[in-house]
Design a protein that fits this description.
- By secondary structure, the protein is mainly alpha-helical.
- Helix content is about 65%, strand content about 0%.
- The longest helix has about 40 residues.
- It is flat and about 60 Å long.
- The N and C termini lie far apart (about 60 Å).
Length: about 70
Amino acid sequence: MSEDPVSTRVGRGALVQSLSLEDLDLYSVEELGERIASLTAEIDRARSARDRKQASKSAADALFSRRAD
């Protein structure tokens, strides 16, 4: 019997939290640089998603506020 992939899904924010628990002393200077680059790329991705959602929300708010007039 195969395991349901949905039941093994990690909770929202759990991966980011687990990153903060890692012992960074185990990483080399180069590995820390790679980690910073990866985390920066993820921050940029999250900001982009936030900005898209904010633009959609602002457009919807503007549409519905015009209808109320």
